[in-house]
């Protein structure tokens, strides 16, 4: 992390690049392997929960790194702590691949707003069809729920 934070030279403490951080990613994958083995053995230690949380963070980062291509950029924020984010700037390729796996798709994401943006990056680009709702949108209810647990202990 120190090597990466030294690369940040802007006044904002941020650095953006198009290429993946390959050296860092290799270290993340190596940590995942070691942590998974350790977590399987050390169940009752005080540090188990902290390592488990870090393992899931590394796993999430690693999964995104597997998809990294020209549609992504890496953002490094080196302020008090150094944070590395892999940002997908154009998700249309991933959405199209997933939508091809089935005969129908329901997309849910808080980041696909407004709906016209979703339409532009998926349907129009890939030739998908959409249907009109048989009722007025004003008769419906829009609900947001953000307390979903997506991590599972080993």
Annotate the secondary structure layout.
Blueprint: H1 2-7, E1 14-17, H2 22-41, H3 48-67, E2 72-78, E3 82-88, H4 92-99, H5 115-126
Helix pairs in contact: 2-3, 4-5
GO molecular function, one term: helicase activity
Keywords: ATP-binding, Helicase, Hydrolase, Nucleotide-binding
Protein name: Putative ATP dependent helicase
What does this structure look like?
This protein is α+β, with helices and mostly antiparallel strands. It folds into two domains: 2-88, no CATH class; 92-139, no CATH class. Helix content is 43%, strand content 12%. It is built from five helices and three strands, in the order αβααββαα. It has helices at residues 2-7, 22-41, 48-67, 92-99, 115-126, and strands spanning 14-17, 72-78, 82-88. It has a three-stranded antiparallel beta sheet with strand order 1-2-3. A hairpin with a 3-residue loop joins β2 and β3. The longest helix has 20 residues, at 22-41. The chain is extended. The model has no long low-confidence stretch (mean pLDDT 78).
């Amino acid at each position: 992390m120190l090597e990466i934070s030294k690369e940040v030279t802007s006044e904002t403490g941020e650095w953006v690049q198009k290429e993946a951080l390959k050296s860092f990613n290799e270290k993340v994958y190596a940590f995942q392997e070691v942590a998974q083995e350790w977590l399987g053995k050390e169940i009752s230690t005080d540090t188990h929960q902290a390592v488990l949380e870090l393992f899931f963070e590394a796993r999430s980062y690693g999964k995104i790194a597997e998809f990294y291509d020209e549609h992504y950029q890496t953002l490094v924020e080196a302020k008090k702590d150094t944070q590395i984010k892999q940002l997908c700037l154009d998700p249309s390729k991933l959405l199209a691949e997933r939508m091809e796996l089935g005969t129908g798709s329901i997309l849910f994401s808080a980041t696909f707003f407004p709906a016209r943006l979703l339409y532009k990056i998926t349907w129009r680009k890939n030739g998908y069809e959409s249907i009109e709702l048989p009722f007025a949108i004003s008769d419906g209810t829009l609900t947001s729920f953000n307390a979903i647990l997506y991590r599972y202990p080993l």
